[in-house]
Design brief:
Blueprint (H helix, E strand, L loop, with lengths): L5 E6 L3 E6 L4 E2 L3 E4 L1 H10 L5 E3 L3 E4 L2 E7 L2 E6 L12 H14 L20 H17 L6 E9 L5 E2 L13 E9 L3 H14 L5 H13 L10 H4 L12 H12 L1 E3 L6 E9 H15 L1 H5 L4 E4 L4 E5 L5 E5 L3 E4 L5 E5 L15 H14 L3 E8 L5 E7 L5 E10 L7 H36 L1
Parallel strand pairs: 1-8, 2-4, 18-19, 19-21
Antiparallel strand pairs: 2-6, 3-4, 5-6, 7-8, 7-13, 9-11, 10-11, 12-13, 14-17, 15-16, 17-18, 20-21
Helix pairs in contact: 3-5, 4-5, 4-7
Length: about 450
């Protein structure tokens, strides 16, 4: 069983002191790290998850977990306006899991927050607990099997006789055969068993360990062998094994973000850090896609990250500067453009801190697509934001640009909290559809006048 690791919890942009020590440990405000742990942390920090100084480590706008040496460092989203946000650690962790699930980054259908211990939240343990819970339930009812090609010497004919292997007179009493066996020892099951084996040696929760070992016991006839990410990528899915695809995605995620010892029996380090701006974008897009009628009305569809064209051509007539808005709403004569920005706006400034580059970007999107309206959507962390601008054009009329913010502090794992979030988002989105419908109604009248 893995040793109980200490976990340091930071919120976005929070800073924590660290000191060099003989062993890894954590107290209320200081991290004590060995030289090796610091070096490993700097190696894992190639993505810029932290700003590591001489005596301080400061979280950036990434959320997730890093396990290195004898400690875990996890970063939670700062979603509350309260000054004492540490009182809301469980809510931040729960909402993070729900956002990761809804956006498809971790394929858990319904991550449950009921088991979160407000005094000890460890995203690594939670991540594996959810995996073990759902996989154990599935594998008790069904196991993946497939026909595997085998070659062996048998005392009876099975499949095809391999004539060219009749070369040893001393073995004429056995028959070389090539046949297909409906086997449980498949690459898919070897991936599940190997990942569960590694996970069971990396967590400290007894219940999770028992569930992982129960899974490996069910897969007793499956070979326990090291599996790489490239091996996982060779797994093909059919209608018979499609139910296991989300779990294989988690296995790949786990293996890809882990560093293993040479003995291949222990996780030396693990990192899963997600840029919050990407998570915010994916979460909003997936929520709108789930029920476009609720947010915009009949006849509207939602697409995320759709390529709309290129901004320019270079001197060789090659297209450059790909334009790809975060969200496009289609359904009227003209589309609606939404871009999410994970930034904290500044209400004391005349433009709320909306950057000039963001405005130029939205203008380019709107002009290229002939949009009816567009929106910059921000998280509502400090105060709510609501401003309206107008792009004046010579041939497309005025294009309305809305600046809005959405609170992320509802309990997204609770049905009431989830409904509250959807209502807030709907109140923000509905005016976009209203503008599109008004323009569609006015278009025939305009054609008559022009005629």
């Amino acid at each position: 069983m893995a040793l109980l690791m200490q976990t340091a919890t930071l919120f976005e942009y929070e800073e924590r002191r660290f000191e060099v020590s003989e062993t890894d440990r954590i107290d209320d405000r200081t991290l004590y790290l060995t030289e090796k742990t610091i070096q490993d942390l700097e190696r894992l920090n190639s993505g810029g998850f932290f700003d590591i100084g001489r005596t301080t480590i400061r979280a950036q706008n990434y959320v997730g977990i890093i396990r290195v040496g004898g400690i875990s460092i996890q970063v939670l989203p700062k979603i509350m306006r309260s000054a004492n946000i540490r009182e809301h650690q469980a809510l931040s962790a729960s909402n993070l899991l729900q956002m990761l699930s809804s956006s498809g980054i971790i394929p858990f259908t319904h991550p449950r927050a009921a088991f979160l211990d407000i005094h000890r939240i460890d995203l690594f343990e939670i991540f594996i607990k959810l995996f073990a819970d759902e996989l154990q339930h599935l594998i008790h009812h069904t196991q993946s099997r497939e026909y595997v090609r085998k070659s062996d010497y048998l005392r009876f004919v099975r499949g095809k006789i391999t004539i060219n292997q009749y070369s040893n007179p001393a073995r004429m009493h056995v028959i070389p055969c090539t046949y297909h066996d409906f086997s449980i020892d498949t690459l898919l099951n070897r991936t599940l068993k190997y990942t569960c084996h590694l996970m069971s040696r990396s967590v400290s929760d007894h219940q999770t360990i028992r569930k992982l070992r129960s899974i490996t016991n069910i897969l007793d006839q499956v070979t326990l062998t090291p599996i790489t990410v490239s091996d996982v990528d060779r797994i093909s899915f059919t209608r018979l094994n499609r139910v296991f695809e989300p779990f294989i995605r988690i296995c790949r995620l786990f293996l890809h973000h882990s560093t293993l010892t040479l003995q291949v029996s222990h996780i030396e380090s693990f990192s899963l850090m997600i840029p919050m701006e990407k998570l915010f974008e994916a979460f909003i897009a997936s929520t709108l896609k789930q029920d476009p009628v609720y947010f915009f009305g009949q006849g509207f569809t939602v697409q995320g990250q759709k390529q709309i064209g290129y901004l320019a051509k270079d001197e060789t007539d090659r297209n450059v500067f790909l334009m790809r808005p975060d969200i496009i709403i289609e359904g009227g004569d003209r589309p609606i453009i939404i871009d999410t920005k994970y930034k904290i706006l500044k209400p004391e400034e005349s433009k709320y801190g909306v950057s000039q580059s963001d405005m130029y970007q939205m203008y380019a999107y709107a002009m290229y697509t002939n949009a009816s309206s567009c929106m910059l959507l921000y998280p509502d962390i400090l105060v709510s934001h609501k401003r309206d601008f107008t792009f004046k054009t010579s041939n497309q009329g005025n294009i309305h640009l809305m600046i809005r913010s959405i609170p992320l502090s509802c309990n997204l794992s609770d049905p009431k909290g989830w409904n509250d979030f959807r209502e807030n988002l709907s109140a923000i989105m509905r005016p976009l559809a209203t503008i599109a419908e008004r323009i569609q109604r006015e278009a025939p009248e305009q054609e008559v006048v022009n005629g």
